[in-house]
C-alpha cells in the first residue's frame, strides 16, 4: 500500500532522458513528520519520489515520470544531472547528525518491494542502484555504513561483488577501478570512503587495504562480464 502526499518540488525531465538510476538516501531528520514537512515545503526546494518510513509505510511524493530534486550536485558514470535520470527514495533515519541507527527489518522489506516495482518499470541496470554518497562522495554520507546493501543485492536490487583473488595495492590502480565503477575521484579519500560505506562497511577509513582493493577488483570483474548493464 502506497500513500500519496504530493510535493510541489519537481519539474519535467529533459526530453529524451532515460530513467536508468535508482538513488537511495536517508532523511537525516529527527522524525518522519519532520522529513515529510521539508520534502513538501516549496521553500526547501528538495524532494524525492518516495519516502519509506521505519515501519515500512511508503509515501509517494513525486510521480516517477517527473524529475524530483534529491541528488543535488552529483556524478555517476560521466553523468552530472543525476536528478534527470533517476528515481530517488528517502529512508527515514536520523542520520549521522541526529543519532544514526540501523534500518529496521520492516523498513528494508518495504524498500525491497518498492524498489522491485521500480525496476520492473524502468531499465535500471544493477550497477546504477547507488547511494547518495556514491554520487556525491565529497558532500554526503547516506544511506551510510549501516544500510544493508547485501540484502538488496540478494533480492535482485543492485550488486554485491566477490573479492578478486589478486589485486594491486596502488592508488592509481584503485582510482582507475573506482572510475570504471562509476565514481568521480577528484577527492580520492572521500570517494574511497564512499566505496567502503557501500561495499566494505565494517571499516570506513578512506585507506587502501587488501580487502578494499580486492572488492573493487571483484566489482570491476563483475561489471566487465556485462551482466550489470
Entry keywords:
229 residues; alpha/beta; Lysozyme-like; Muramoyl-pentapeptide Carboxypeptidase, domain 1; 2 domains; six-stranded mixed β-sheet; two-stranded antiparallel sheet
Quick recap:
With 229 residues, the chain is α/β, with parallel strands linked by helices.
Number of helices: 9
> Can you list the strand order of the major beta sheet?
1-5-4-7-3-8
- Uncertain segments: none
Q: Quick check: average pLDDT?
A: 96
In the CATH hierarchy, what is the class of the largest domain? Answer: Alpha Beta
Q: Give the overall shape.
A: globular
Content of β-strand: 5-15%
According to CATH, the homologous superfamily of the largest domain is Peptidoglycan recognition protein-like
DSSP helix fraction? 25-40%
Biggest sheet overview: 6 strands, mixed
Query: How many independent structural domains?
Result: 2
At CATH level 2, the architecture of the largest domain is: 3-Layer(aba) Sandwich
The count of β-strands is 8
Radius of gyration, whole Å: 17 Å
Q: What is the CATH topology descriptor of the largest domain?
A: Lysozyme-like
* Helix and strand run: EEEHEEEHEHHEHHHHH
- Roughly how many Å apart are the termini? 30 Å
Q: What structural category arises from helix and sheet content?
A: alpha/beta
Amino acid at each position: 500500500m502506497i500513500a500519496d502526499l504530493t510535493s510541489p518540488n519537481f519539474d519535467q525531465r529533459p526530453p529524451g532522458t532515460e530513467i536508468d538510476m535508482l538513488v537511495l538516501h536517508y532523511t537525516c531528520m529527527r522524525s518522519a513528520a519532520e522529513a515529510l514537512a521539508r520534502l513538501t515545503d516549496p521553500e526547501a526546494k528538495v524532494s524525492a519520489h518516495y519516502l519509506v518510513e521505519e515501519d515500512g509505510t511508503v509515501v509517494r511524493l513525486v510521480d516517477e515520470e517527473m524529475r524530483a530534486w534529491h541528488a543535488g550536485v552529483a556524478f555517476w558514470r560521466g553523468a552530472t544531472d543525476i536528478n534527470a535520470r533517476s528515481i530517488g527514495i528517502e529512508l527515514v533515519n536520523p542520520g549521522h547528525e541526529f543519532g544514526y541507527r540501523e534500518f529496521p527489518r520492516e523498513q528494508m522489506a518495504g524498500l525491497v518491494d518498492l524498489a522491485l516495482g521500480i525496476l520492473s518499470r524502468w531499465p535500471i541496470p544493477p550497477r546504477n542502484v547507488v547511494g547518495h554518497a556514491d554520487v556525491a562522495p565529497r558532500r554526503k554520507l547516506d544511506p551510510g555504513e549501516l544500510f544493508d546493501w547485501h540484502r538488496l543485492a540478494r533480492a535482485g536490487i543492485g550488486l554485491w561483488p566477490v573479492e578478486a583473488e589478486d589485486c594491486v595495492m596502488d592508488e592509481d590502480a584503485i582510482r582507475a577501478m573506482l572510475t570504471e565503477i562509476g565514481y568521480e575521484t577528484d577527492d580520492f579519500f572521500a570517494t574511497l570512503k564512499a566505496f567502503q560505506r557501500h561495499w566494505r562497511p565494517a571499516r570506513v577509513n578512506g585507506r587502501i587495504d587488501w580487502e578494499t582493493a580486492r572488492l573493487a577488483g571483484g566489482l570491476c570483474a563483475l561489471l566487465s562480464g556485462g551482466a550489470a548493464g
